[in-house]
């Protein structure tokens, strides 16, 4: 197996495991309105669509078997290096998921008896699941070798950033402004070791 198919296999396994784990979640007590959620949903969906199209066109699924050639080609060692980043990104996201336990939700929600988690990967970034997914998807987009895939990941990243901002506004109501302000002051949002305000 070559690096790109291996990366796609890893993404597929991650998606399946993630959906199975979605059954493990605490009762939701509040969620934002559709209007509040719409910006991140729309941007993320467009980005994900572009990423999928890039993968499909790369392998010829929409072009009667005539796959589009990549605009850049990577040495084999670089391809496997990117697959290693896919593993690292997905593992980081799973570490965060396990650290959250039943507080996790695929949507922006406030759970019953919600608490602020600051252990595990949450010591490095406030939204490690998004960090891990951006790393993994970015590595695959570079492997695909088509600019539309990179654009798709950029839009997914923007969607995650919008969703993270909404989540933070929602969490403040559960854990208090002072507690979350302290967390924000000491922990970057998405990029580990990124300077924070304050």
In short:
By secondary structure, the chain is mainly alpha-helical. The protein is built from six helices and two strands, in the order αβααβααα. Helix 2 packs antiparallel against helix 5 (147-175).
List the defining traits of the structure above.
64% helix, two-stranded antiparallel ribbon, Four Helix Bundle (Hemerythrin (Met), subunit A), 6 helices, mainly alpha, 198 residues
Please tell me about this protein's structure.
This protein has 198 residues and is mainly alpha-helical. The protein has one domain: Four Helix Bundle (Hemerythrin (Met), subunit A) (Up-down Bundle), CATH 1.20.120. It is 64% helix and 3% strand. It is built from 6 helices and 2 strands. The chain has a two-stranded antiparallel sheet. The longest helix is centred in the C-terminal third of the chain and has 29 residues. 27% of the residues are buried.
The CATH topology turns out to be: Four Helix Bundle (Hemerythrin (Met), subunit A)
Q: H/E element string?
A: HEHHEHHH
The overall pLDDT, averaged over residues, is 87
CATH class: Mainly Alpha
- Number of helical runs? 6
What is the count of structural domains?
1
Report low-confidence residues grouped into runs of 5 or more.
Answer: none
Read across the widest sheet, the strand sequence of neighbours is 1-2
Give the name of the CATH architecture.
Up-down Bundle
What percent of residues are in strands?
A: under 5%
Q: Compute the gyration radius: what is it? A: 18 Å
Overall outline: elongated
Separation of the first and last Cα atoms? 48 Å
β-strand number: 2
């Amino acid at each position: 197996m070559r690096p790109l198919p291996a990366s796609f296999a890893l993404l597929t396994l991650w998606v399946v495991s993630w959906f199975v784990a979605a059954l493990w979640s605490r009762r939701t007590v509040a969620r934002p309105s559709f209007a509040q959620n719409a910006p991140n949903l729309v941007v993320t969906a467009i980005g994900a669509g572009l990423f999928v199209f890039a993968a499909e066109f790369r392998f010829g699924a929409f072009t009667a078997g005539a796959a589009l050639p990549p605009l850049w080609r990577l040495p084999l060692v670089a391809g496997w290096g990117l697959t290693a980043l896919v593993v690292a990104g997905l593992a980081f996201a799973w570490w965060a998921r396990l650290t959250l336990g039943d507080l996790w939700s695929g949507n922006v929600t406030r759970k019953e008896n919600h608490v602020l988690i600051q252990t595990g990967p949450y010591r490095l970034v406030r939204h490690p699941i998004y960090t891990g997914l951006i790393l993994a998807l970015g590595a695959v987009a570079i492997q695909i070798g088509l600019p539309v895939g990179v654009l798709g990941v950029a839009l997914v990243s923007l969607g995650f950033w919008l969703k993270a901002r909404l989540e933070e506004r929602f969490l403040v109501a559960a854990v208090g402004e002072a507690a979350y302000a302290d967390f924000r002051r000491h922990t970057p949002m998405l990029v580990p070791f990124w300077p924070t305000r304050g």
